[in-house]
Design brief:
Blueprint: E1 12-15, E2 22-25, H1 38-57, H2 64-82, H3 89-100, H4 109-129, H5 136-146, H6 185-198, H7 204-218, H8 225-239, H9 251-256, H10 258-271, H11 274-309, H12 315-322, E3 328-329, H13 331-338, H14 342-354, E4 358-360, E5 370-372, H15 373-380
Antiparallel strand pairs: 1-2, 3-5, 4-5
Helix pairs in contact: 1-11, 2-4, 4-5, 4-8, 5-8, 6-7, 7-8, 7-11, 10-11, 11-15, 12-14, 13-14
Length: about 375
């Protein structure tokens, strides 16, 4: 079957291969003009406002480290879920609680993928925050972290793919998408790196949509492309000055709108439909920034409510006020933090369980673990705006 011609606005072309043709994207910068109309400009302004509001409020809370650690973990869970992993946030907290206590913890492949994503996102963000540039070397090192102990036999890790791949279409009536052959990947990735480092050609959020499309279209790795591409979004937001800490988790939006996410990118490849992709992408940034801001506000309001409800220095009151720094814990951690006896720690925990502040998570008679119900409801639920 002859390779079909694409319209002039498409940022690439097909190259013959069997049974499906390769899609070869142009190197950046694209030759086709990308127009920002008034509606898209308003969407960019809304997203910029939400990012600024989020970055302004988050450092003002006195539980900021716990907040961004929690949001990093949410992002890690969501980005792994898009790729098929089945892990909830409790499992991630339980793992960290047990390992910090010195326990050896067996991990499933799904949990390991989440832990890897958490570490890679935090490492990448810290690198950019401390002045490193977004380079191919950095991305390859993060890819190595993402696939540590979860890679399939024979997969290239920490380097670009050496085999060809194809991506199933989200609908059965469309053929698979075949990214460029592996021989083309180094040159395409070099141009992507150069484009990012020169600061792009458009508003930073538009360039973010462009570079994310380009990364996922090149599909430079044998596995982990989606996870690495979504980490790159957060790194670019940091490099552009939008985020001082990783308070944003874009994967949640793409996870909720997975089919649209894939179809909008494919419409760019085949028809040059940039506007709809950019609008969709920037809406995702705006929605997630607004959600993260609202979660922060809700946590601050809950903290003030607990301060009024639990004003005294008895252990149960101090523990209730302390769950914002320690939302998932063991009785031993309560002993150590408040310098109290084992029995006093258990009494405080039981009192707060009876009041619905805490819940025991393991169902065990020994080595029990507890989480702050209201805190996790805010972190995991849909925020009210």
């Amino acid at each position: 079957m002859p390779t079909r011609e694409l319209p002039a606005d498409a940022p690439g072309h097909y190259r013959e291969s069997h049974p499906h043709p390769y899609y070869i994207p142009e190197k950046l910068p694209f030759s086709t003009a990308i127009t920002v109309d008034d509606e898209l400009a308003n969407r960019i302004a809304d997203a910029s406002f939400q990012l600024g509001r989020l970055d302004g409020i988050s450092p003002t809370v006195d539980f900021a480290p716990v907040l961004y650690t929690s949001l990093v973990r949410l992002e890690a869970v969501e980005t792994a879920e898009i790729e098929g992993a089945d892990v909830d946030v409790d499992e991630v907290y339980a793992y960290h609680t047990r390992t910090s206590a010195g326990a050896n913890v067996d991990t499933s492949k799904d949990l390991q993928e989440v832990l890897n994503a958490e570490r890679a996102l935090q490492d990448g963000f810290n690198a950019i925050k401390h002045g490193e540039s977004i380079t191919l070397e950095l991305l390859q090192s993060l890819h190595e972290s993402l696939l540590e102990n979860v890679r399939n036999e024979g997969e290239a890790v920490g380097e670009w793919r050496t085999t060809d791949v194809h991506i199933p279409a989200p609908r059965s009536d469309k053929p698979p998408f075949v990214p460029p052959p592996h021989q083309d990947v180094p040159g395409l990735m070099d141009s992507l790196e150069a484009y990012i480092q020169m600061g792009g050609q458009h508003h930073p959020l538009v360039d973010l949509a462009i570079t994310h499309y380009q990364f996922e279209t090149i599909h430079p790795c044998e596995d982990g492309n989606g996870r690495l591409g979504r980490i790159l979004i957060v790194l670019q937001l940091c490099a552009a000055g939008y985020l001082d800490e990783p308070y944003l988790y874009p994967s949640a939006y793409f996870n909720r709108n997975k089919q649209q996410y894939v179809e909008r990118m494919r419409a760019v490849s085949e028809n040059g439909e940039w506007r709809d992709w950019i609008a969709f992408f920037i809406e995702g940034i705006e929605v997630q920034a607004r959600n993260s801001y609202q979660r922060t506000v809700n946590l601050m309001e809950l903290q003030r409510a607990y301060e009024r409800r639990y004003p005294h220095q008895k252990t149960s009151h101090r523990l209730a006020r302390g769950v914002f720094d320690m939302p998932y814990f063991t009785a031993r951690e309560v002993q150590n933090r408040f310098d109290v006896s084992r029995q006093t720690a258990y009494n405080a925990i039981e009192e707060l369980i009876s009041e619905g502040v805490l819940v025991e998570t393991t169902g065990n008679q020994r080595n029990q673990e507890y989480k702050a119900v209201d805190v996790f409801d805010i972190l995991e639920g849909t925020p009210n705006h």
